[in-house]
Amino acid sequence: MTLANPPEIQMKTITRLVALCGALTAGCAYGTDPADRWLFTRMSDLDYARMICERVDIQDDATCVNRMLDVYANPAEAEFPPEQSTSGPFLIMLGADNYYGWYRSHPFAADFRVTNGRTICRGGYNAFMGATDAVFAVQCDDGRHGTATTVRDTSGRNGVGTLTMSDGSVGRIIFGRDVLQGTPAAG
Length: 187
What we know:
- The protein is an alpha+beta fold.
- It has one domain: Porin (Beta Barrel).
- It has four helices and eight strands; from the N terminus they run H-H-H-E-E-E-E-E-E-E-E-H.
- Strands 1-2-3-4-5-6-7-8 form an eight-stranded antiparallel barrel.
- The longest helix is centred in the first third of the chain and has 22 residues, at 7-28.
- The protein is globular, with a radius of gyration of 20 Å.
């Protein structure tokens, strides 16, 4: 006569298997290039500061990075309620220009609007309108168009991305209240 596993042992086994699958997925689901379609990216404060400061003159780079790290260590803004965690400042570094603006996101749709002071660019995607990927269709007032992809960091409130325009130019995207505080993008 054989005894079946008691329900408690079966439940523990299932729980362990689910936890193992989750750990394996999380370990394999992140990267730093949004074009690779990772689920999230691991970005440190130093990574964000270096990206934001990459365009300053070399002699001012350390000052810029240290200033950004200080802003991150001593935030001036209060914690935002959960309903405001799906919008925030948005920065695109394209060519010699920085485009500052704002993004909004929902589970199946998102959009942004940025400007360099001369040109306005807008981007968005909407799964309800047929978008099968979270790839932003981008249109600028000067006639340029392209696509943008983003990936959130592990906090879910900030992230990075890539903008590719029809003329072949490629830009970097940084977004989120936490990482853009203290910059013109934060307002």
